[in-house]
Amino acid sequence: MHSNSHKRNRAKGSFLKYCAFLFSLCFSDITHGLNLVTSEGPPHTINHQLYSGIDLDVTKAVLRQLGYSVNLHFVALGRAEKLVRSGQYDLMAPIFFAKDSDNFYISDPIVTYKPMVLSLSERNLSPDSISDLAKYAVITFQGAPGYFGDEFKTMSKQARYKESADMSVIPEMLAKSRYDFAVLDQYIFYYFYRLNDKQRAIDIFKHHYLIPPVTASVAFKDKMLRDRFNFELKKFKQGKGYAKIVEAYLGRMEQVALTEAQ
Fold first, then answer.
1. What is the value of pTM for the model shown?
2. pLDDT, mean over the chain
3. Domain that holds residue 176
4. Which pairs from 97-106 meet CB under 8 Å and 24+ separation?
5. Closest C-alpha among 180, 173, 168, 192 to residue 251
6. What confidence score (pLDDT) does residue 32 get?
7. Structural domain tally of the chain?
8. What integer is the mean pLDDT of 196-210?
9. Are 68 and 189 in the same domain?
10. What pLDDT is recorded for position 260?
11. CATH number for position 177
């Protein structure tokens, strides 16, 4: 009992130190301010005074190396794109499946989103395809069939299938065996599963790699800044900064290969 309490206090202390580090960045002597528009979706993007999520922390860390501070503005993601394309804001994140166009320039990937099918390890389930889930109880996020193609849509009509508007309940529902499978981004799943305890064991879950990963990027209104960002991003990924950001939100993930964007 004492050991678990010590682990929780240590994890809490590490996260508070990380928050203090981010807070200090806000007051550093940086002269160039950029306006970044985004939409809230923990743990990738979070509307908080001290910490702002994996995607935004990566973006801010790279821009800081270039001498920029970042002011965050939260709106719907579709509106965020329009605000950058119109030149009202300097950049947006995350953005998916986008290509360069006039006054809208896409960075190299900052984070890899990994939509994942998960089950309990003790069940020893081994589906070979999304269609194989049709015989089971499946829980996922609201609107999931619109993201994962026709095979997923067909499965959703055949399985004992539930969409939850509240993604935070999905990991617990799987952990309690209320469902056979959960479908959710890997970072989101473990963020909510470990929200109150960064040391919580994760080896109870088994991963089924049935959905292709999706890379997230940053969109800039200025091409030169995008190019400078890409150059600095490559160096950032070669260091330990990315892993430290992920660990701050998810805890140490030795049992799981959480692949970052290459």
1. 0.82
2. 89
3. 115-208
4. 97/214, 98/217, 98/219, 100/223, 103/221, 104/219, 104/220, 104/221, 105/219, 105/220, 105/221, 105/222, 105/223, 105/226, 106/217, 106/218, 106/219, 106/220, 106/226
5. 192
6. 76
7. 2
8. 94
9. no
10. 41
11. 3.40.190.10
